[in-house]
Structures are given as structure tokens and as C-alpha cells.
Amino acid sequence: MTMTSSGTSSGEEPLCGAPPDRAPGEGAAGDGPAGDGPAGDGPAGDGSAGDGPAGDGSAGGGPAGADVAGGGSTERWSKASAVSGPGPTRPDILADRQPRPVWSRDFALFFVARALARLGDTMLPVALAAGLLQYGYGVGAVGLAMAASAAPFAGLVIFGGVIADRFSTRKLMIGADLVRLVTQSLAAALFFADHVILWQICVIGALNGVAGAVFQPGVASTVPRLATDVQGANGAIRIAESAAQLAGPALAGLLVAFASAGGVFVAHAATFALSALCLLLLRLPPAAPGSQAHSGSFKADLAEGWREFRSRTWMWAVIVIWCVYMISIWGPTVPLVATEVVQHHGPRAYGLINSALGAGTVIGGLVALRLRPRRMLRAGSFALFAFACFPASVGAGLGVAAMSAGALIAGAGTSLWGVMWATSVQTQVAPDVLNRIHAYDVAGSLAMMPVGQALAGPAAAALGADNVLLIAGFMTLVVSTALLSVPAIRNLVRVDGPVPRLRTGAAVPEPARRDNHRAV
User: Fold this and answer.
1) CA distance 238 to 157
2) Beta carbons within 10 angstroms of residue 186's beta carbon
């Protein structure tokens, strides 16, 4: 059965006449052993790993005109497209996709939907902790309830990527929001009825995780369809999500204080309802050339996504390095910073430091709106050095002001990395495999985070929490250096539009013009 996402009745305009993916009998791109790498948003991304490889919805891409060694389906572009300047805009893309500014009615709807989703997600931990502790459950039960949602998401997001590449991503995202509207409304009803049983909360969390796995892959392909300035769009979304991350816990605390934990779940359900409404009103423009209907089996599409992922050295290399980041840096930093700051300076100081971290991510998003580096991952890797300031300042036992300054700098650096990564993925990967590649990106980025969190306690007991945080600061320098040491990562040249996958022997068009933004 052939499945497409076309049709004006769904709110998506018909697909442009896209060229076939490959000539009959041609193998999938990336059938060779070469590969490329991650997904993200950094420490606290969309339910993903945060400002790193997986996130912003953040994700995915193969080198067009940069990663010659990476091979795969994009190697045919490398010599013709790797020209000086910030990157070519391909005439075959411009013919079907007229340049659109970042701010349009449809992007504004998507922008609001993403901000609302992040607002609700940052409220949920407060609701679970306050609600379950109120009914006599311990910290372990809170962790179990959170894991009940995270585990299905991480385990199923790869399959969600295949589904998103076969069906209308807009419809899938609306459906996922509606499912979570129902589940969170049910959770609110349980809390209001004083009938809170842990296994029921875990089942609800698991359903939310499955819905999130269906929703998340479509985010990556939606951004480049709404704005030709993909980096500007990602920067704007990052700012909105960062602001929501600042407001969410505070709003949840007020609701718990003046209403109950059930009230937070009502508010969380409302964010999904409003997100679904925004997506319902959204009209996606035609898909970029290179998109195609999928008539192969589910297993074949899954395998093709893996081949495309491993065919991009810059992509899989970032994911591998990001696993080290999660185990040695982000995993232990989150719980140990909370413990150290609360014990020595009190909860107010911890709230101030968290606010500084969030403010830093806003600053990073603002910088990303203006900074247009020719080699985006190189710039992002240099920015990532800044995260060392966060765990190192806490581990060194500095004052609250110094720790807040360190958090501010760290937030700006990881935010800039997240925008550079997400934009690279969304512009370097052919549209017909972008959702699947983003799913592999998200799954790989999240894989090691629970391991790092689980090892934080034993490591702190053996070495001392302050020493573990100092090591995390040092490992940030190691990880950033490792990213820069991989030629496929540091030399990846930006492009201005999605990479079409061409048939063998197809002529490579010459670039029509250069980006007007000055490269740095």
C-alpha cells in the first residue's frame, strides 16, 4: 500500500512533483560501510537529551558538499557543492520552495505549539513529585513514574520515525497530542478523587511515552517546511522553549500551593489541547523535492533509515561522543548539582541557579538568530566548551553568584550547540528519510542518560560529589575537543535547504546564488 502525506483536506498542500528517490535497482544510500552523527538539544530537550544531539526536535542530517569521507547518498554533492561561502542554495529546491521568512502565520502556530509543549513538560516533574509524596510514596516511586514515560519513548521513537515518514506528520502529531490530553485528564481525575495508585500513574506515563515517540520525529521535518531560514526558526523555537522551561516549574509550584497536584495535571492536559489546536490550524507547504511515498515494508523502511544514519560519519560520530557526554557530564551533573546546592545554600539558591541556566539558553537562542557560521558544528563544538562552567563552579564550592554566572554561560553555550546541531540535521538530510534519521538521533542521544544518572550516586560516594562535578567539568572539555577532532564534524559546511537524493548519474545543478548572510 502506498502511503503519502498529501492532500489539502489534511491541512498539507499537495506534494510537488518530486523526482524518484533512485533509479530502479539502485541500492539505498549508505550501503557502504561509511557513516555519519547526533540529535539534540542539550541538557533538557524535548523530553530528549537536551542541547545536544537529540533534541529540538532537534535533529538529523547528512553532509552535502562537506563530508566527502562520510559518503552515503550525499557524497555526490560533495565536490560540486562544497564552495566557499556560507553554503549554496540549490536552484532545484528554489524552483518549488519560494523563500519564506521565519515569521509567518503557520510558523507562529508551530512556535506556540512547541512552547506550550515545553511548558507542560517542565510542569510534570513538579506534579509527580508533589502528588506522589503527598500520598505517601517515596522518591523511588517518583523516579519510577518518570521512568515509565521515558523508557517507552526511548525504546519506540525509532519506530515512530518510520511511521512519520509513511504518514502525514501533522496528523500524527495531532493524534499524539489528543492521546496525551486524555491520559493527563485521567491522571488529574485520579488525583482529584484521592485515588492515586502507583501502577496506574505508571501506565498513564507509559502511554504518554508511546505518544511522544510518535510525535517527536515529525518535529524535525516540520521546521524546514515552514521556514527556509531553518537556523532562524530553530533559534526562535529554542528561545520559546527556554522561556517556557523557566516559567513551567514556577507555575506548577503555584498550582500545587493554591490548588493541588491534580490542578497541575489539568494544566498539562490543557497544553496538549492547545498544541493540538495550533497544529490543526496549521497548513504545511509542499514537501521539498526528494520526498516520496513509501511503498516498502515497515522493516525495509526501518533498515533504510539505519543505512542512511550510518552513512553519515559526522552524525554517528556526534552520537557516539554524546553518549560519553551523557554518562560523564549531564547524567551526574543534574542530580549532584541539586544535592550540593540545596545542602549548602538552600532551595532558593538552587532555583536561582536553575533560572540562570534557563536565561542562558535564551541568550544562546538569541545569538543563534544572528550568528551564521559556515561550519556550524565547528562553531557549536566551540560553544559547548562553555558548559564546563556549570558543574565546575558548583564542584569548586564557589558562591551562589559565581555558580549562577557559570550556569548562565553554560546555558548559552549548550543552546547555541543545540541550534547548530538541529539545523545541520534538518538541512543536510533528504526529506524522505529525515524523520527516521531524527529518530535514530534521539534514541542514540538518550541511551546513556539513565546510565549517567544511575552512576552519579555511587561515584559521589566513592569520590565525593564535588570531585565528580569537577571531573564533569573537565570531561566537557574532553568531549568538545573530541567533537572538533573528527574531520567530518568540524569540516561540515552549511547548506541552505534540504538535500535531495539523486539518481545515479543525475546531473548536479550549479548553485544559483549564495546566502546573503555573512559567514563567520
Assistant:
1) 21
2) 16
Residue with the three cell numbers 537529540: 54
Rg (CA), the chain: 22
Burial 237-265 (b: 16+ CB within 10 A, else e): bbbbbbbbbbbbbebbbebbeeebbbbbb
Inter-CA distances, 91 with 15, 289, 294, 361, 500, Å: 18, 11, 26, 35, 11
From CA 388, how far away is CA 417, in angstroms rounded?
Answer: 14
Residue 226 makes CB contacts below 8 A (sequence gap 6+) with 100, 104, 106, 107, 110, 233, 284, 285
Q: What is the DSSP letter of 396?
A: T
In one-letter notation, the amino acid at residue 226 is L
| 8 A C-beta contact, residue 324 and residue 472 | no
Q: What is the pLDDT of residues 379-394, one digit of tens each?
A: 999 999 999 999 999 9
Which of 183, 172, 171 lies closest to 215, judged by CA?
172
Mean pLDDT score, 325-348: 83
Residue the block writes with cell 522518591: 139
Percent of the chain with pLDDT over 90: 23
Q: Is the pTM of this model over 0.90?
A: no
Return all residues near 77 (Cβ < 8 A) that are at least 6 apart: 64, 65, 499, 508
Q: What are the tens digits of pLDDT across the range 98-132?
A: 445 567 888 889 889 988 888 888 788 777 877 88
CA atoms of 265 and 128, how far apart (whole Å): 9
User: Alpha carbon of 86 to those of 59, 381, 484, 494: distances in Å?
Assistant: 20, 18, 19, 6
Distance in angstroms between the alpha carbons of the first and the last residue of the chain = 47
Q: Does the structure show a pLDDT above 90 at 410?
A: yes
Of residues 182 and 147, more confidently modeled: 182
d(CA 111, CA 214): 19
Contact 363, 408 (CB under 8 A): yes
Which ranges of 429-464 does DSSP label H, i.e. alpha helix? 431-446, 449-463
Rounded to whole angstroms, how far apart are CA atoms 425 and 374?
15
Q: How far apart, in whole angstroms, are the C-alpha atoms of residue 334 and residue 176? A: 29
Taking 60 as the threshold, does the pLDDT of residue 518 lie above it? no
For residue 297, what are the β-bridge partners?
A: none
Q: Is 283 helix (H, G, I), strand (E, B) or coil?
A: coil
Please tell me the distance from the alpha carbon of residue 164 to that of residue 294, in angstroms, as a whole number.
11
Asked if residues 301 and 437 have their Cβ atoms less than 8 Å apart, the reply is: no
For 512, other C-beta atoms within 10 Å of its C-beta total 13
Check: CB of residue 358 under 8 Å from CB of residue 409.
no
DSSP per-residue letters across 117-165:
HHHHHHHHHHHHHHHHHHTT--HHHHHHHHHHHHHHHHHHHHHHHHHHH
User: What are the backbone dihedrals phi and psi of residue 54, each rounded to the nearest 5 degrees, phi first?
Assistant: -120, 90
Give the DSSP letter of residue 326. I
